[in-house]
Amino acid sequence: MPETARRTDRFSGTRYGNRPTMKDVAARAGVGLKTVSRVVNGEPGVTPETERRVQEAIDALGFRRNDSARVLRKGRTASIGLVLEDLADPFYGPLSRAVEEVARAHGALLINGSSAEDPDREQELALALCARRVDGLVIIPAGDDHRYLEPEVKAGVATVFVDRPAGRIDADVVLSDNFGGARSGVAHLIAHGHRRIGFIGDMPRIHTAAERLRGYRAAMEDAGIPVEDSWMSLGVTDPERVRRAAEDMLTGPAPVTAIFAGNNRVTVTVVRVLAEQSRRVAFVGFDDIELADLLQPGVTVVAQDAAALGRTAAERLFRQLDGELIAPERIELPTRLITRGSGELPPAD
Amino acid sequence: MPETARRTDRFSGTRYGNRPTMKDVAARAGVGLKTVSRVVNGEPGVTPETERRVQEAIDALGFRRNDSARVLRKGRTASIGLVLEDLADPFYGPLSRAVEEVARAHGALLINGSSAEDPDREQELALALCARRVDGLVIIPAGDDHRYLEPEVKAGVATVFVDRPAGRIDADVVLSDNFGGARSGVAHLIAHGHRRIGFIGDMPRIHTAAERLRGYRAAMEDAGIPVEDSWMSLGVTDPERVRRAAEDMLTGPAPVTAIFAGNNRVTVTVVRVLAEQSRRVAFVGFDDIELADLLQPGVTVVAQDAAALGRTAAERLFRQLDGELIAPERIELPTRLITRGSGELPPAD
DNA sequence: CGCGCACATGACAACGTTGTCCAGGCTCTA
DNA sequence: TAGAGCCTGGACAACGTTGTCATGTGCGCG
Lengths: 349, 349
Prior knowledge:
Two copies of one chain form a homodimer.
Chain A: H1 22-29, H2 33-40, H3 48-61, H4 67-74, E1 79-84, H5 92-105, E2 109-114, H6 119-131, E3 136-139, H7 150-154, E4 158-162, E5 172-176, H8 178-191, E6 197-201, H9 207-222, E7 232-234, H10 239-249, E8 258-261, H11 264-276, E9 282-286, E10 300-303, H12 306-321, E11 330-333, E12 336-338
Parallel strand pairs in A: 1-2, 1-3, 3-4, 4-5, 5-11, 6-7, 6-8, 8-9, 9-10
Antiparallel strand pairs in A: 10-12
Helix pairs in contact in A: 1-2, 1-3, 5-12, 8-9, 10-11
The structure holds a DNA duplex (30 and 30 nucleotides).
């Protein structure tokens, strides 16, 4: 296909298909190319009369500056990338929104994508964003080896990891206190008399899941309670299997009297299972969920502040971009135990 | 500042600051620029031996193709823009995710931003995305005049509106059946014996809100019930004022025996208020909410399929981009009444 | 043995913008 | 009134990539 046919588009008749350029605007306004550039960018050195003529041509032609060319020339894109696990997860909504707000305050756009917890997809996405020359990256890691980002970081791409630490690379990280949060949640159950406490969480290869498991173990150990394997379910998140795991813990010779859930998705399923039980089983979940206060009993949770995670990470990112030469740091945000009833039930055995 | 100093960055020591280009790779591999381009793009006509040498240079230098330059040359960005109202709203999470999935299937990235229900911000965002030369736009309109997009559409930017119709421009629109859904929800309450039914919704300038209000009125009229002004609250969404509106309807000489909520945010607040009442008040809400089945009573809702909205819109967008010459169309997706208890309560007066 | 042909490779222009630099016209002052 | 200085505006190169086209090499076949 000849080069000149490239721009033909699917439209017929009056549709243009070719966008006007500064050159076109300049021709129409009867001025030089650079003068148009000056007007578009609000640079000084143009008489009001010239500016008016240029502006008129811009409006008439429907000119819009081509930022690709601008980026190519200037080196900065004024956009940042966000790689997260799942846009549809209610936990990440406020986080992305917070990142977006900070980006907006700095005049940057947000490009984002979901890794679906797949390390390859995370890498593919992150590198695609780098190819677009985003100024910075906020990453919620799916994988545990981020050496593939080394050339990017060296080339000046600001990078901050959120929610989970980076693997094999020295970078800023913003985390919740998963260990401490889980520990205090489980300790809360213990303080209310429980000893046989179940734990249902995600795969321990996910850092947050591992930390929360560690918190569970620590609380149990603090209280001198040996943990039985049958009390723990690791690596299940789909509703069906979580349901079965919960039911298993609640039956048998020495059933648990309380359950600690490792994340919001597990929580909603376990809460459903517990609602079906005749026996009252205590419950504490990691991550807050909507309407938790309206259930009977209210759902006690260890809440993390997703928006604060996103905001902190993004601010850190722009501090890197603003040239504040800061050594990579690990920032840990506190969690908050919210008691609503389910975690204060006494053991029923 | 001299042009050559432009690339100095905040890093010291071994940091590079300059990204290698194809030229650098070519020099290192001892081949021509175009050969590198061929290897990077997997074009034929390169001997395995040459390809190996080039690949080696690429890895050694940490080269990553600059997509800005590529876009400038090729005209297509392989990215689409999504302008929505609030990323943090649980309704839009699945919608964005669906758009993203379709984009991914077509090899495109997603750039998105929240308009925060502000028409100016919507326009600013949409135009910024156009300046980046996104191939297409999915817009959840905040404003009601989209003529500002005319030059873009003419220039070939595929455009689809979702959730609410476009204003003053002829374009594809994907909507839920807001009118029919609300009408059936209210009819459901009427069928259970209610006559004094309250409606709490968003500002009628928002299309979805207006349609749902219209559905409410239609259902009431179908049943021959004159609507009292005091039964309707329009334009309030913040929890405090929704709470007051609901409480007002429930007091006075002829209190409502049922409430219909116009969206998910109103629903969560009204459900809270109703939980505090001694009297049982029937309730139906527009939009499904998580854990609605676990509340006492379960929350009856008119559910729309957010993911389907996003998927349909995105698919439509790519059909435009794939050159299927299709006249703008209005697609309406059905809603579904999910009965869980709250909508089946009899009037208590 | 020579001709043409296929194939690998590279030189070069172009994409649309911005930074640099220079020209021309103006004002102000000596 | 001439020279200095300022202000406006334009010519031109460069950003990194890809499409086009030309070149060179080696091979098969008549």
